[in-house]
Amino acid sequence: MARSSVQFTVGSLIESACSIHVPALVVNEIADKLPSRQVMSGNYPHLDGLKLADPHYGKPRKVDLLLGADKFPYIIRPGLRLGPDGTPAAQQSIFGWLLTGPTGFTDGNAPIAVTASHTCTEPSISQALQRFWEIEEIPVGFLTPKGQLCEKLYLDTARRREDGRFVVRLPLRSPEPITTRLLLPISDNQKNSDPAMLN
Predict the structure, then answer these.
(1) Quick one: the chain helix, strand, coil %, rounded to 5?
(2) Are 157 and 168 in contact (CB under 8 A)?
(3) Which residues contact residue 147 at a Cβ distance below 8 angstroms, ignoring those fewer than 6 apart?
(4) The whole model's pTM is what?
(5) Most Cβ neighbours (<10 Å): which of 85, 95, 114, 130?
(6) Does residue 177 have a cis peptide bond before it, meaning omega lies within 30 degrees of 0?
(7) 58 and 99 in contact (C-beta within 8 Å)?
(8) Which domain of life is it from (predicted)?
(9) pLDDT, tens digit, 9 for 90 and up, residues 119-142
(10) What is the Cα–Cα distance from 135 to 83, expressed in whole angstroms?
(11) Taking the C-alpha atoms of 109, 45, 80 and 66 in order, what is their torsion angle to the nearest 10 degrees?
């Protein structure tokens, strides 16, 4: 659970003109120490002479900052060094060369720990409630001309019968009254089942 949020700038020790603005959540612990166990430096000729972003990459240490993928394009620089399968790859960045991939030195009996981190920020309850009311708010005073006619017809013709039912004239497209009615024969059973037909 995040304790608070902050905004700060991360600068590069390699490229002094490079920095990125970072909004961040403050948490007690991002992950366990990484790597999970001591990694022995191997003989990697493709990495010779590179200034690594973390020269002590093989020693388990606390994770201080986890940057999101949205910062990736601002960090990465052209330059990629690949070695044989089973060795780390190096990618140039504003912080120096970043190492990713296997080291080739693993103890076959030692369990391999996998760490995954997912952070989801949710708005506060008051922000969520405000957003709900904004979505649910009915626009006031916006009626089309047809809508205005329907509303006027309702206000002019709506009435309540003695039995509590409401009666309102239907909004017909033609203002002329209908002068003929279609009458169907009604059986006595239908008359008895509907009290409105007795009138």
Answers:
(1) 25, 20, 60
(2) yes
(3) none
(4) 0.52
(5) 95
(6) no
(7) no
(8) Eukaryota
(9) 666 666 777 777 777 776 666 667
(10) 55
(11) 40
